[in-house]
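input
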Amino acid sequence: MLPSIVVPMSTAAPSGAETAPAPPSPSDTGSPSVPAAAATTPVPSRTRRRALDWRLRFGILCLVWGFSFLFIKVGTQAYAPLQVTFGRLAFGTAVLVAVLVAKRARLPRSARTWGHLTVAAFFLNALPFSLFAYAELTIPSTLAGICNASSPLWGMALSLVALSEDRPTRRRVAGLGLGFLGVLTVLGAWQGFSGTDPTGTAMALGASLSYPIGWIYVRRTLAGAKESNVALSGTQMLLATAQVGVVTALFTSAPASYPVVPLLAVLALGVLGTGFAFLLQYGLVAEVGPTTAQMVTYFVPVIATTAGVALLGEQLSWNTPVGALIVLAGAALTQSRPRHTTPRRPA
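output
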């Protein structure tokens, strides 16, 4: 759910390479929510010196996205899932709009760009954020965070079908098989999936599937867009907020009260887990490259699980962490590339 994690869908660029960031496979992000600009704006050849070391910012991003599942759980204890999603988007959009104003960046003028961003907003923000919020009504935040980690697997599977440049290899097929074996382990397939709510789990997995669908669409339609990353991101978030706002107004009623703790959770989810996280992630991609930045994917479920167990008292059976490790191993295998050694010339 939470914003998305950078996972190249085809050729992985070396750390620090001067190339356009590959589409994130949000791990939400759950996986988070990374706007489309990360897939369309080139990385500058020289990055400015940052006040904070990239490793510290990397750790902050892991914490923000990992805790987002806890924030969703706390928020849904007092507000309807759509209201949590709308609040998250509204607060996140406020952050990006503030950056837009500060940089005096203009929104896209092309109707075609707005149309493509409308689709991107639905698949990368409105749909997955809503599905994760509804899922956490019936499943623990730990399970939601682990389901989010399957996004790189869905992304690789879809890219093999939808993107002609991504050809299946033994390594990728093995990674996909191993990853989905891990999903079955998390869900306890050998015992008939007992102990897990099938509807909530399906929603969480559907949210993780929505991210790569959105990124493949962005890659096909918005690659090479001339607008700045802030302009594209701000527009996408505005559109997602409008989409969810209309649905929320039609299908929910205003809360009778506004408990402070759930409200603060929604505020943190939007300001930190959506708006601030995107800016942080984009800066990491620009500075260290998508290959290094994508490693956030492997820390988010660990933090989400730790936070759920320690702060919410959620129960954890043995198959959940074991399955999560298998999922992450499969995801890592699909993204790895074999080393090419130069053959020695005969003496």
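quick obs: Residues 1-33, 41-47 have pLDDT under 50 and may be disordered.
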